[in-house]
Amino acid sequence: MDNFHMKKLVLVGAVLVAVAVVAVLVIGSNIGSIVKKGVETVGPKITGTSITLGGVELSPSSGSGTIKDFVLGNPEGYKSAYAIRLGEATLEVDPKSVLSDKIHIKRVAVTNPEITIEGGLGDNNLKKILANIDAFTASEKSQPASDSGSKKKLQVDDFLLSGAKVDVKFAILGGKGLSVPLPDIHLSNLGAGGDGITAGELTKTVFNSVFEQVIPAVTKQLGQLGTLGKDLGKGAVDGAKGAVDKATKGLGDLFKKK
Length: 258
Description:
The chain is of the alpha+beta class. It has helices spanning 3-29, 31-47, 125-142, 145-148, 199-222, 229-232, 234-256; strands at residues 51-52, 55-58, 64-72, 84-93, 102-111, 114-119, 153-162, 165-170, 178-181, 185-190.
C-alpha cells in the first residue's frame, strides 16, 4: 500500500473516531431527556394510565442521577389525583449500556412515595392498574419472537422503596382520611443474566410487590377501626368491619388469582 492510500485510510479512520466521539457526547448530554421521553411514552401503554415526569438528570460519565416529580395517574372512573407520586428517586445506570440491547440499571432508590388506594379492598384503582399491566405483559408474550426480540431489555441490580405511605380513600370511611405506612420493599437481580426483562415485566414485578404490601397493611389498619369509632361514626365502623372480614377471608384467593 502506497503512502497516499495509507494517509487516506488514516484520515478516514480519524473522521470516524471523531464522529463517534461527537455522537457519544451528544447522546450523553441528552441521556436524561431520552429516559424521560421513554418513560412517558412507553409507561402509559403498560399501565393504561397517564405517567408524567418532571425531569431526569443523569451524568453521562458516571450514570448517577435523579428522577423528579414522577406521577402515575389513575384509571378512568377514579377521582383521586394520582395513584403514585414521588418527589425524587435516585438511580445509577451503566452509561455504556444505554446504546446496547440491554440497559443495565445498577441501583434505584425510591424514598417516601405517596400511594393512593381508592375504592375498596376487593376492587380499587391499584388492582385495576395491575390488571392493565398483566394484560400488557400477556400481549407482549403473544407477539412473534422477531418483534419482541427487537425491544430494549432491562436489568436492575438493586431496587429499594422505603418510607411509603398509603392514603386510603374508601367510602366506608365516611370521608375521613386514613394514612397507612408500608414496610420497605427491596428487590434485586431483576433481569440479571441472559437477555434481561422487558419494561412491562419490570413494571409488573415492582407494582405487584407494592400491591401485595398495600392490601395487607390497609386491611390490618381497617381492622383496628374500633378504636376510631368516635371519629368515624358507628355506621362507618360497622361497614368497615364487614368489609374487613370479607376481604380477610378472601385475601388468600385474591393473591392466588394473580
